[in-house]
Amino acid sequence: MKTSLRESLRAGAQLALAGLAAAVLLAGTWALTRDRIAQSERQARLQALEIVLPANRYDNDPIADSVQVQAPAWLGQPAATVYRARLAGADSALVIEATAPDGYSGPIRLLVAVDRSGTVLGVRITAHQETPGLGDDIEAGRSNWIFGFEGRSLADPARERWRVQRDGGHFPQFAGATLTPRAVVSAVRRVLDFVAAHGDAVRAADAGATLSFDDAPIDPPPAR
């Protein structure tokens, strides 16, 4: 019995040591790779920002100078990151994560850059599940449709014309797919409305702050 007990204790000790060694190995691997992973994630965010934000518009670090915004009625998601671009110390642009919750096949995620005057610098779709060959024309690689937002503002076209043409608005829809562009147009308009209503508060907040806005945009009247 004593020999059996010693063998059991020895096996238990070996198992515990093996578990400890595995834990140490995992911890060491995480410590060695976490900085590399963080750098890769940062690089991916920078590349996404560069697509919608011209390099001559900022000289700061928009990622470090970002804030978290909780404004679901405006941006279509519970929380969003807003990247703030500055040039020579002056506010230049905001790059805002947003979601169109009413896509044909589900939510459509966007990145929208808006300059200090409220003009769109660029819009890109970052994720969607729209129908291939129809709704996926919202992608920059599929058509030029998404570039139609560049240079637009709530005054150009007029706010009530921030709709697809089928609804009496300015923006074209796709043949056989109206719901998808309708959702994206509405989402971009809500981002512009958000910037008009709360842009000053977002620009003035400390980097890393979390801001909450419980109000909601008012839909524009039907286009005539």
From TrEMBL:
It holds the Pfam family FMN_bind. It is found in: Cell inner membrane. It is a single-pass membrane protein. Residues 103-195 form the FMN-binding domain. PANTHER family: ION-TRANSLOCATING OXIDOREDUCTASE COMPLEX SUBUNIT G. HAMAP family: RsxG_RnfG (MF_00479). The complex is composed of six subunits: RnfA, RnfB, RnfC, RnfD, RnfE and RnfG. This is Ion-translocating oxidoreductase complex subunit G. It comes from Arenimonas soli. The lineage of its organism: Bacteria, Pseudomonadati, Pseudomonadota, Gammaproteobacteria, Lysobacterales. The gene is rnfG.
